[in-house]
Amino acid sequence: MSSMSDPSTPEISWFGALCDDDYEFLGQPDPNRASSWEHCSDIVRTADDNGFDNVLLPSGYALGIDSTAFAAAIATHTEQINLLLAVRMGEMWLPQLARQLATIDQMAGGRLCINIISSDIPGEALESAPRYQRTREWMQVLRQLLDGQPIDFHGEFVDLELDPPRAQTVSGACPPFYFGGFSPAAKDVAAAEADVFLTWPDTVAAVATTVDEMSALAADRYERELIYGLRAHVIVRDTEDDARAAAERLVSKLDADTGDAIRNKSLDATSVGVSRQAELRDHAADDGFVEESLWTGVGRARSGAGAAIVGDPDQVLAKLRAYQDAGIGAFILSGYPHRDECDLFARHVLPRLEHAPLKPRFER
Questions:
Q1: What pLDDT, on a 0 to 100 scale, did the predictor assign at position 1?
Q2: Which helix (H) or strand (E) is 216 found in, with range?
Q3: Consecutive H or E run containing 161
Q4: CATH 3.20.20.30 fits 11-233+324-361, yes or no
Q5: What is the pLDDT of residues 326-359, one digit of tens each?
Q6: How far is CA 357 from CA 16, 231, 265, in A?
Q7: Is the predicted pLDDT of residue 250 greater than 80, yes or no?
Q8: Count of CB atoms within 10 A of residue 269's CB?
């Protein structure tokens, strides 16, 4: 079980945009912002220079470049930032994956974290229950291998007897697992196997309800404690009017058909979590705000995290602190264009937040 020494000090992470998800205007592809080594490494190095604690490196098949190969390369081009590498469960041979992750952690000097992805793998579709059973088994065995333990495991999806690879992480222990999902099966796997439970943007009250529900599930069913992370976009400007204008400009060239096409490209486009993001948009006011400083317009052209924290520096800071009060101990933020918004957030908000990476605070 893991614990965090100071939950009042959140981890503040940025987003690597590896999945062709960078725009000046949503729905208007820009070849200069397409996923590539040059573009994505520039975003990650900017986040590192700006003092962010971690950076999410998302995984896609039809979208963008490979996250694992990218993580190995960027590990040698960054100094302090942790690398939250997204790994799709079932996509790679487990012993090979464990060796790759241990090697990347060595290349990064112990800065690797793992974002567990449970969506369908390319060319294969599973119902929710077996898909999450596969995820559970992969998380269990991957943790054992990265903890340096031998494997004698015989499940529905994993059947292995072998010693761990000689290559181990810098700490000799498995990096923390970040994982999110909103179906009953996903929540049960998270309660049992995850270290950080990730939720997408929602109202403060709804996020607090999720934290309470997952805390009870993890404690009552598995005698565990979780840390909670929020994945959201952010638009911060000198004034509220400027921030709202930037939000409107972002979607000013978007039409409904293009937005639908973008959302439906994702392998998890029909998940419970994505459905909740659509519901949030449906309950928003005409200007797209569903509550103070929470704007749902970005979800018109994006599967997954579909809302942004929008406002002046004081408003954005207040919103983040409201989520902290609701139980959030980690934030994974992004904005469009990603490098520009990374600089803006680092200038206006990050210096006013006491923050630190989660990984050194994990105890096993």
A1: 37
A2: helix 204-222
A3: strand 159-162
A4: yes
A5: 999 999 999 999 999 999 999 999 999 999 999 8
A6: 17, 15, 32
A7: yes
A8: 15
Q: Which two tokens stand for residue 226?
A: 């979780």
Two structure tokens written together for 164: 């761990």
- Return left, alpha or beta for 9; rule: phi > 0 is left, psi -120 to 50 is alpha, else beta: beta
Tokens found for residue 103: 């090697």
Q: Are strands 177-179 and 159-162 parallel, antiparallel or unpaired?
A: unpaired
Residue with tokens 């900017």: 46
β-sheet bridge partners, residue 153: 160
Across 77-86, average pLDDT? 98
CA distance 61 to 67: 10
pTM value > 0.70: yes
- The answer to whether 349 and 8 are in contact (CB under 8 A) is no
Contacts of 261 (CB under 8 A, 6+ apart): none
C-alpha 139/C-alpha 98 separation (Å) is 11
Output the furthest CA–CA distance in the chain (Å, rounded): 61
Indicate the DSSP class of residue 103: H
For the cut 50, the answer to whether the pLDDT of residue 4 exceeds it is no
Name the DSSP class of 120.
Answer: P
- Name the pLDDT band for 267 (thresholds 50, 70, 90): very low
Mean pLDDT of the region 132-136: 97
**Straight-line distance from the first to the last Cα atom of the chain, in angstroms, rounded to the nearest whole number:** 6
Cα–Cα distance, 93 to 264 (Å, whole number): 28
Q: Which residues pair with 152 in a beta bridge?
A: 161
Contact status, residue 61 vs residue 267, Cβ threshold 8 Å = yes
**Which is it for strands 289-291 and 159-162: parallel, antiparallel or unpaired?**
unpaired
The span from the CA of 171 to the CA of 26, in Å, is 41
Cis, bond preceding 337 (omega within 30 deg of 0): yes
Condensed to tens digits (0 to 9), the pLDDT of residues 189-215 reads 999 999 999 999 999 999 999 999 999
Picking from 47-51, 201-205, 304-308, which range would have the lowest pLDDT averaged per residue? 304-308
